[in-house]
Amino acid sequence: MGLKGTDGDAYRKALELGAKPISPGRARRFLRALRAAGLELLTAPGVMGEDYVSETSIPFRVVGSIGAETTAEDTVRVCREMAGKGVELIVFVGGDGTARDVCRAVGTSTPALGVPSGVKVYSSVFAYSPEEAAEAVLEYLAGRAPLAEREVLDVDEEAYRRGVLRVKLYGFLRVPVAEAFIQPSKTWAGGLDVEENKRAVARYFVEEMEGDVLYILGPGTTLMAVAEELGVEKTPLGVDAVLNGRLVGRDLNEEGILRLLDRYPRARVVVSPLGGQGFIFGRGNQQISPEVLRRVGKENIVVLATRDKVRELKALRVDTGDPEVDEMLRGYIRVVVDYMEEAVIRVV
C-alpha cells in the first residue's frame, strides 16, 4: 500500500485500502519448514498463532488470551506468559514494531527470534526468511547456534512517511546466531567518497536510460542521486516512476505501479540493496510486488550500489513473499557500482 509501515492506525488504513495480511502466510511457511520432531509448541490463541499451528501435526498448547482486535499489549502479555512457563525460545512473526513488543515483554531474559513479515525489518533479530528461521531454530535446539544479544531498531513512521529516516535503538534480544540464516542490522554509509560514488553511479545510469521506457525507481539515497541527476523531485523513501526524463508517478503503491505498467508495458525496475543486509526486494519496497516483478521480468531489473555497499555484502537477497518470484530472481545480476563500471553479484 506504500504506507511505509503498519504501526497503529496505518494497519487499519491498509486493510481499508484492500491490503491482505501477510503474516499468516509467513507463519505457515515457517511451520512447514520446522520439521519439529519431538517438539511441543506453546502458541497464542486464534489469529495470533493457534489458527496456523493447528494446521500442522506438531503438538501444541494455547497460552493466554487475546482481544477481538489484537494489539501490542496482547503480544507483550502472551510473551511474558510463555517466558513464565520456561520456553526455550520465543518465535514471533512480524517486523520491527513486533520486535519492540517482544523486547518490552522479555528483554534478554528469554531467547527470541523473528520471522520477517514487516515493512520495516531493520533489526538484527530476524532470520532472512521464514524457511531460514526454521533452520535457525533447529540449529539452536541442536546446540549449534550460540545465543548473542542483537539490536532491536525501529523508525519513526510518521517522520518516515514525510521522507525523513529516524532510527532508534530500543533494546536487545538474545538471538540464536546461526550466521547463515540471521540477518545483520541495516547499515548506513556516508562521507564525501561515498557521495561522489553515488553521483557517478547516477550519472552513468542516467546516460544509459532509454526513451519511451518507464523507469520505476525504488527508495534510498542512491536513487535520490538518480532523481537529482534527472532534475525531478523524488520521494526519498517511496517508489516513483519516470518516463522520458519526466516524473509520471510519485510515492506509488502497488496499484499505482500496475496502472502505469498497463499504460507503459516497456518498463524497468531500478533498486539499490539495503545496506548491511543486501535485500533488493522485500524490505521497505514491498510496493514493487511479486505481480509487478512478474510483469517486468528479471531482465528488466537494474541494481545500483556504491562500492562500499557491495564490498560488505556476500550476496544480494530477495524476500518478496512469493517463493516462485524469489526463485525467478535468483542467480546472477549485474550491479552498477561506478561510472561505466559494473559487478556481477549472486542473488540468493
Q: What features would you highlight for this structure?
A:
35% helix; 2 domains; disordered N terminus; 348 residues; Rossmann fold; two-stranded parallel sheet; 7-stranded mixed beta sheet; alpha/beta; elongated
> Which strand order does the major sheet show?
9-8-7-10-12-14-15
CATH architectural type of the largest domain: 3-Layer(aba) Sandwich
| CA gyration radius, whole angstroms | 20 Å
Which parts are unreliable, with pLDDT below 50 for 5 consecutive residues or more? 1-5
Major beta sheet summary: 7 strands, mixed
H and E order? HHEHEHEHEHEHEHEHEEHEEHEHEHEE
Overall pLDDT level: 89
Shape by Cα distribution: elongated
Query: Which class best fits the helix and strand makeup?
Result: alpha/beta
Mind sketching the topology for me?
Blueprint (H helix, E strand, L loop, with lengths): L8 H8 L6 H12 L6 E3 L6 H4 L6 E3 L9 H13 L5 E5 L1 H11 L5 E5 L13 H12 L5 E9 L1 H5 L5 E10 L15 H17 L5 E4 L3 H10 L9 E4 L2 E4 L4 H10 L3 E5 L7 E3 L8 H7 L4 E4 L2 H5 L5 E2 L4 H7 L1 E8 L2 E7 L1
Parallel strand pairs: 1-2, 3-4, 7-10, 10-12, 11-13, 12-14
Antiparallel strand pairs: 5-6, 7-8, 8-9, 14-15
Write structural notes for this entry.
The chain has 13 helices and 15 strands. It is elongated, with a radius of gyration of 20 Å. α3 (50-53) links the parallel β1 (41-43) and β2 (60-62). By secondary structure, the protein is α/β, with parallel strands linked by helices. α8 packs across α9 (221-230). It has two domains: 9-176, Rossmann fold, CATH 3.40.50; 192-347. The strands form five sheets. Strands 9-8-7-10-12-14-15 form a seven-stranded mixed beta sheet, sandwiched between helices. Strands 1-2 form a two-stranded parallel ribbon. Strands 3-4 form a two-stranded parallel ribbon.
